[in-house]
Every structure is written in C-alpha cells, then in structure tokens.
Amino acid sequence: MIWKKRGILHALHAVVAIAAIGQVSIGYAQQPRERPFSVKDDISFTQIISMDASIENAPVQWSPDRRHFFAVAANGDLATNSNVYRLWCYSVTTGPALVVSKPKLLLQVSSKTNMPGIVSARWLGNSQISLLRSAGLGPAQLYLVDLDGNARAVTQHRTSLSDYGISRNAKDALIQAEQSPASIDEVSRGYIGGREAIERLYGVGMRFPLYTEKAYFHVDLATGEERPLHTSTLMSNNQGFGNSQITVSPDGRWAVVAVSNSDSSSGTPYTSPEYFYPRYLLLDIRDAIRGSANGTNLDLNGDEKRGVVHISFAWAPNSGGLYISRKWSSDGTQKGTFKNGHEDIEFVELPSKTKEIVADLGQATDDTAQPDTRIRSTGADFIEVERFGGRAPAEALRYRRHGVGWKLETEVPATQEVFPLKISVHQGLNLPPDLFARWGSGKEEQISNLNPQLLGSALNPAEEIEWRGLNGKKWKGALLKPDHYQAGRRYGLVIQTHGYHAGVFLINGVEPWMTSGYAMRALAARGLIVLDTPDDHSDQGTPAEIPDNISVIAGAVRQLVDAGLVDKNRIGIHGASRSGYWVQGVLFSRTLAPAAASIAEADEVSRDNYIASFGCAGVCSMSNVERMWNLPPLFGVVSAAAWARSDPTNHMDRMKTPLLLEAYQAHVGEWWEDYALLRRNSRPAEYIYFPDAAHVPVKPVERLVAQGSVVDWYDFWLNGHEDPDPGKREQYGRWEKLCDLQIAENTGHQAFCIPTKHRHGD
Hints:
By secondary structure, the chain is an alpha+beta fold. The strands form 8 sheets. It has an 8-stranded mixed β-sheet with strand order 31-32-34-33-35-36-37-38, sandwiched between helices. Strands 1, 2, 3, 4, 5 and 6 form a 6-stranded antiparallel β-sheet that branches. Strands 11, 12, 13, 14 and 15 form a 5-stranded antiparallel β-sheet that branches.
C-alpha cells in the first residue's frame, strides 16, 4: 500500500561493489564489452548515500571550518548477504591554491539487516563525526569517529536507534529508539483491535513488525547513562534513515523531534498537508525527563494550499532561540516540489516560545530556481544565511535584530573565499555517479571512482524518448534497447512503471535504489527492450487516476510498435507500490494485451484490500478508496452489487496474462486474492514472499531473487528462454507447468514460453 513507501525505503539504497573512491574513472560506455550485465552487477553497484535531508543533492558534508568533508558510499556483497558502507574523509589544503586530498577510509561497516550500516552521519565540531552504526545483525548504536578513524560507541541500547541529536557542547544527546519487542507472556494475552490498520495489529509481538513505535531517551555522553523521556508514545516521522529529524540546543536543554501524521492515531485527514509532512515538536528535555511535558507543536506545516518541502534548524548560541528555514511548496499534496513556492526564516524565542518572521527569502517560479540554503547563528541576535544553486548568483545574507524586528544587515554575492569549493555528483542516463570538485575559477576534477567493476560489463546506452498518451498529453521516459540490437527486428518489451527521473543513471528502475523487481539493464541483457514510464499524478485519488496512467503506458507502446521496434504480442509490464494500480488497470482493460506481468509489494483494487484499509488515515483509507473508485461504503445489498461490478477480482476469468507476484515485509501483501483465484482456476501465477524484506528489498540475496525472478520471468514468457544455471532447474520446472496451463487456456494463441514436453532431459 502507498503508506509503506514512507520510512526506510529512501535510505535503503545500498547497492554495490568495492569502492575505489579516490581514483579517477574513465567513460564506462566506451569500454570493451566482456560480458552481459546481470542482477549481480546491479547489486554490486556503488552509490554515494546522502546524509543531509535538509539540502537537496547533498553528497558530502563539510566540517564547520571547511577543512574537511566526508562522503558515505554503499555496496552490496552477495558472498556475505550484507551491505557494505564506507565513510571516506577528504581534506582540503589551503594556501596559494586549494587542493583536495585523496580520501581516507575512516570506517567500514557491513550490515545484514534492513538498517543501513552507516546512517545520519554529521560533524560534531571540526574533528569528530557522529553517526548511527549497525554492524552484522546487531542493533544500531550511536558512535563517534575521529579523523584518525578511531570509533567509540556512545550507546549500548537494547534496541536499534533510528535517530539522534547531540548538543553543540557534546555533553547531551537525545536518541530515538525502537520499543522493545513484546514478551511471549504479553503476546499470549492477546490484543484488542481498535481503529488501527490490520498490518499494525498483526505486527504486534512479531519479530519483524511493519510498524514500530518509538521511545526517546536522554544520554549523558560522558557517562553513557540513559534516562527515558516520559512523553506520550510517538510514531516516527517515517521520513527515512539518514533524514535526521532531531536537533538539540547547544546547552542540551531543548530539542526538536519530528513525528508522523500519516497514521490513524494522529487524526490528520488525507486532505491536509500535515498528512504528508511531520509534526515538529519542541521538547523541554528536563521537563520530559520528569514526566511533565509532551512537547509543543511548532505548527510548521502550512495551510490547505501549501506545505513545507524542506526544513532546517539553527540554534542561537546561548540556546535562547531557534531559527527555522522553511521551503514551501505551492501545493501541500505535491510533496517534494518547489514550483511557485517560497522560503522564509522564522525565529522561536525560548523559553517563552513566541514566534516572529526574520525574513521572507522570496518566491521560486519552478523547481530549478529554488536555491539551497544553510543557516547558522554565531551570535545571540543575528543569523547568517548562505544561499547557492538555482538560477540566482550565490549570496551571503546577515539578519540582525533591531528592536522588535529583524533587519537585513548585509547582502553580498558569495565570493570564492566564502564558497571556495563545491562538491557534487555528476551522472547521466548512461553515466554512473561519481564525485566531482569544482573551484570558483571553474576548474573541475573528478575525485572518486565508485564503480570500476562496470568496465567489464556491457552498458548499452539508454535514451530519452517522448510520446503522447492516448489522451494527448506529452510524456518522456527512458528507453533501453537490448544488447546487440539489430535495426528492423521487433523485440519483446518490458514496461517499468512508477516514474522516470531525467539525468539519473539508469541501472534498475526509477532510482538506483528502486530494487522492487526493477532490473532495467539486466533485462536488456536478455534481449529485451525496456521502457521506464512516468506516473501521471494529475488526478491522483480520483476515478481518473488509473485511466490517466493507462493512457501514458498505452501511448508509449503504440509509438514503439508503430516504429517497428516492438512485437505487440510480446509485451510485459511491471509495477510496484502505487503503480500496482496501473498494472491491474492494464490487465483488466482492453487497451493492451500483455503476454506477461509482474508486481512487487503493490496496490490493487479489490474488496478484500478495501476492507484491509480500515484504520489507515490517508491515501489508503477506506473513504479515499471509495472516492477513488466512485463507490459507496460497502454495507448492504445495493452497495455490494456496485462493488461486485467494479471489483476486478470478481472478473478474474478475464485475466489471461501469466502473473508474477512478490510480497515483502511481515505480512502477506495485496494481490493474494488474485493469486489464490488464479491458481484455484488453473491460471498461470507465481507468488514469492520475502518476510524480512523492506518495502524495497535491501539485503543482497533478497535482491538477487526479487530482481532475478523478474528478469527470468520475462525472458521465459517473452523470449521462450531459460537460464542454464543449474540452480534454477526447480524454478523452470514450475514455470513450464504454468506454460502448459497458458497453452491450454489460449488454444490457438501464440505462446513463447517453454512447455513441460521440452523440459531438460525429457
């Protein structure tokens, strides 16, 4: 369901091989092709993991004195079924010229869980880095690492930490930790169902619960003593590991924590922008330890017309106030966009908690025009603002308190001395990401070589294409032709739904971390054309949502078939999460006739799924499902008849497409009724369940099976080919029997799969 996309998925993008981060790389696409690309190459692909949620595209973090910066890289290791994280530190030498050193490896961690090995890393002064470290199967703990690579555990908590904040004086920390699992005796007493979603009720006491409540503790960094904060139990803001949402005042008295609105207990309606953005609570830590405070809502989310997209904090040095930089979107329901939005800075005086606006930093006409902003306060009554990026020249601003208000004291273009060096990630559709340093003079140098192993694999060039949907709208997506492509030949096509991001290196799906069955380059290596399609969100949550997206997909297919690239009888479609709706819509419409389909942890339309939505407070709520399908609440004969007409699972006899289903996390996901009905009636379907997977699979072996099964599935059904790997004989034995069912059902229909009579050794 859609709410599962929040939380860990955005930070669980671990993927890749040993990172030679300090070497200079060469163009991958121009190298000799020695072997076809595979899912194993996908798993061993190295990425930079951003540690700063407040700054867009923040691949590194600078020390306050600008003499060092660090980056975190991650890769998957199939041999150990773990993800390897590495913390690299660069030094910048000043003098006649700025020189960036070769990087130094400060810390390497291998994680065998869904938790990243290194997360929420940030500078603590100029010579220490704080971070959460999760090694092996152990719980994540708070560590301090110095510039010599010495690491010290600050906490020994019984459960994993999910977030933290440290005071500037390095004496106090506030940690957010998972609640301890229920004991056997507690579970044996049973639980009373209230208004919570069924997944949360089922998750109580389970080893791998989908939802985990959070507890907060104060930590004395000198002694390691932990004291619980007696606030009401709060849901995590679910923004994703690495996106820290805790900040502590310099003196350790105050803290800001972010908690989620996207759960039923918050009472926040889907129509409110607060549903999409966390509540920020200001805590007096001393009162919270005594049990006399639950936090003050800072009310930062906006109104019904706009919502906060990015937010950052800066404390007054004397802890007498909190500065808040807010980037607003024009539409509270369009999270992540700046179009027609603006930014302002607010000041909260402490302890009175009175608020005032320091500055309105202006409007943005589109996403690219919105600059990055860093704020800092070095005095009790003034704040410094650095703005760079976007279309305007970089600038440095200082605002000082004058009487009861604030006044712009200086406004100067940022100089090379203020911004001596910018570190960014360069990448493209066919260019794997690497770190580049750019000096104020314009000189640019590559300072990492993240993926030297790609030199030995084929990287067929992807291309951006444009088409019109059936409703006339223009769309852009990424097309990847198969290895050894021959003009004039028609190929099988796999459509990968759920978004296209221009300029991002294409390795598997929407993003390099989107591993929910997406495997673009591995599919192309099997002789298939692959197309990444965007989602149409213009009518999200309405009856037009699915038809809109069918229009996008069908328009692209029509263009590719008309161009002579694609065989219309060999089309497959894959979806995950919300794009499961698009796949289901395609399968039950007459617009396309896919020869195979697959979904991974995806939404669907069905009576069973509607009932399971009870207790969810947002896009997954029962009322929203009713609105989306234009149906009355299901209660009585008349409403049941309306549901029966609209529910695709009541018309499964129309379903003739072989279907691969993957479910992740600690529950049997949606589409189970589809699978059960198909198999009960001898239709070809395969169901794979990964009980310890995240919404997006993280662990390498999970990925090998989840992505590899999709690759094999389409190669089997669209190409009539089986991987000769002896370890896959059992898989193909099952699928050949499914092929028999398909042939029997579609008498006279062209079948590309392999029936049992052609089994190996028969």
